[in-house]
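Risk register update: the risk of archive-format incompatibility is retired. Evidence:
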Amino acid sequence: MGRKAISIFAFLTVFCLATPMMAQDEHADHSNDSTHSAVVDSHSEAHHASDASAHEEGEEEFNAAEVIMHHIADSHEFHAWGEGENGFTLPLPIILWTDAGLVTFLSSEFHHDDAAHHVVEKKSQRFVKYHDKIYYASETANEHGAYVSYDEEHHPTNIKPLDFSITKNVFSMLLSVVLILLIMIPAGSSYKKNGGIPKGVAGFIEPLVLFVRDDIARPNIGEERYKKFLPYLLTVFFFIWLNNLIGLVPVFPFSSNLTGNIAVTFTLAFMTLLITNFSANKGYWKHIFLPHVPLWLYPIMIPVEVIGILSKPFALMIRLFANISAGHIIILSLTALIFIFKSLWISPVSVFFVLFMNFIELLVAALQAYIFTLLSALFIGLAHVEEEHH
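Archived output:
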C-alpha cells in the first residue's frame, strides 16, 4: 500500500478517536468526581478558615498534589501563567447540544471558575462548570455558593448537556492528525516525483516505516499477512509517538496529556481488540472454546481463555496510560520542590533533575509507541498462528 493510502488511513483512524474524547463517560465522571469533590468541597467548606489562616501566615499553603493533578487533567482552556483572574489562559470553544439546540461560546465566559460558582446563560439555558465538566445550573446556589446539587455520595446530580467541546486533549489530537498528514502526504508524493527514491522528509520517514514493517509487523504477523495490518500499525505508532512528544512541550499549542488520558488509551486498545478478533482464524477460536485439555477442565480453561482475550488489550491500555502519566507527574513533582521548600538553593537541583527527566521522557515517548505497536502486532499474529501450524 502506498504512502498516501497509509496517510489517508491514518487520518480516518485517528479522527475516529475524537468520539470518546468529546462524549462524556458516566463512569469516568463518577470516579473523577469522587476523587476531586472531596478535595474541592472540603476546600469550599473550610474556605473562610483557610483564608483566615493564610492571612495570619501571610501566604497560602502550596498544594502540590492539587496543582499536579490539575496540570495532567484535561481542560477547556490552555493555562499559560498565573492563577484565577490574575492568570492568563487561552480559551477553547464550548460546544453543547441542549434542549434549546446547539449552544457555543468560549470557555473564558466561566471566568476561571471550576467550582460551579459562576453561571453562564445562553439561549435561556444556564450552565456551570464543575471539575472541568459542564452541567445545567441549579435554580439556586447551595450553602457554599455553588449551583450544583449532590447525592448521598457527594456526586453532582445536575443533568449534563451533550458536550462536544474542543478541550486540550481534543485540540492536541486534531493537531497531531494535521501534523501526520503534513508529514506523510508529502513523503508519499516525493516517491512518485523522484522515481521511488526518498528525498526530503521522506528520507527521514522511510527508516521509521521500514522499522515498523521489518521489525514489528513482518516477524510477528507473518510474511503473508503483515501488509494487511501495516497501515493500522503505522498509524498507531506515529500517533502515539507524536502525541507523547507533544505532551512534553509545556507551551501552547502543546502541553496536553493525550496519551495519559485513559479514554484515549482505551480506544486504541479497543481497536486492537477488534482487529485481532475479527481477523482471527478458526484455529484461534477453536483454541479458546475447544482447548486441547481433558473435557473436565473445560469449565476452567474456557473462562481463562476468554479472560485472556480481554486482559491483553487491558494491559495495552493501562501500560500506556500509566507510563505517560507517571512521567508527567514526576516532572511536575520535581518542579514543585521549589515551591514546597521555598528555597532558592533547591532550584538548581530541581531544574537539573527536570531536564534529566525530560531527556528520559524523550526515550519513553518512542519506547511506549514501539511497545504498543509491537504488542498489537503480536496479538494479531497470535490470532493466526494456529492456522500456520496446521
